[in-house]
Amino acid sequence: MKSVMGLKCGGPFVEEDDEYHSYCKSGQVIASSAFKVFRGSPADYKARFIDKIDQQTESPAMALGKMAHCLILEGRSAFDDRYEVATPELQEEVGLINPKTGKPWGESTAAYQKAIANFRQKSGGRELCSMEQWGLISNMHNAVFENEIAAQMLGQDGMPEAVFRYPSDQLGITLQCKADKLLLDGEGKICGFIDLKTCECLHEFKRRARIFQYPQQMCFYRETITRVGKTGLSTLEMSKNFDVHLIAVEKRTPHKVGVWAFSNELLDEMEETLRAELISFARCFHSNEWPTGFEGVQEWDW
User: Fold this and answer.
1) Which residues make Cβ contacts (< 8 Å) with residue 239, sequence separation at least 6?
2) Which of 53, 2, 295 is nearest to 174 (CA)?
3) pLDDT digit string (tens) for 226-259?
4) What phi and psi, each to the nearest 5 degrees, are found at residue 190?
């Protein structure tokens, strides 16, 4: 483990989400989600992560995904450390209920914001999980662990939410990733990782995965983790075998669960493209020139 420009580098280690994401938002490092923006248009990356023009807030879907990840990957104890389920008694206690209607205040109202602030003050910084959210993520948790293959994979030795950060001397940029579940073999060596996704429908999942560039994310994670291992920055040894799997669970009944493997052959092929894109990113980063990607006349095709 070492520090580069004040950044903790190497891995695996634990880092709170706010701190982890702050480095990417500040432009100090490049993570897979930010790299997806760059891949679409370097100018968009500059607007969001350097000029801070197009800042995005956490959507309800993202908040639900974080809750599900915490419960499924880290268990109920970790969930209770970060969240509190909004039982009717708790809602009444912190002032979330409109006394005239008997229903919760709208999220855009001043009364709702005051109640949330009151809750956070009393809860020591924990977030509120509604009864509806709790029911949904509990069903998703149960479905994942009722799937024999998913349960066996998640039951392997390893580390949830494992951070890796790789400073590339060659490119002059720093990569980072946070593996949902880092896997360790019988000798305690890093042998792969699992990524957990929530989705609306498994039948549409592969098509949506291509749109959201999940395969590219898996490649980026593998590149970051293995680079940390090969350069001696890892606190753990790397196994000769390195497996990448993705588990997806539906957010709606019957909460079907699917497991996909990414072959080394596929990821090796994608790695060539990734490395070329990283060179392009480094060139933009050091020259501070960020093209739109739409210069010139575009050829229209179907």
Assistant:
1) 185, 187, 189, 190, 191
2) 2
3) 999 999 999 999 999 999 999 999 999 999 999 9
4) -70, 125
Number of helices and strands (H, E) in the chain?
12, 10
Phi, psi of 111 (to 5 degrees): -65, -40
- Alpha-carbon distance 191 to 178, whole Å? 15
Question: Where does residue 72 rank: exposed (0-12), middle (13-18), buried (19+ CB within 10 A)?
Answer: buried
Integer angstrom CA distances of residue 159 from 19, 112, 176, 276: 19, 37, 16, 31
Question: Parallel, antiparallel, or unpaired for β 257-262 and 83-86?
Answer: unpaired
C-alpha 249/C-alpha 198 separation (Å) is 5
Residue 192 has which token pair? 């792969």
Q: Which strand (E) or helix (H) includes residue 103? A: none
What pTM value is reported for the model?
A: 0.91
Tokens of 60: 């309800």
Contact (Cβ atoms closer than 8 angstroms) between residue 225 and residue 217: no
Closest C-alpha to 173, from 217, 136, 227: 227
The one-letter amino acid at 18: D
The reply to whether omega before 254 is within 30° of 0 (cis) is: yes
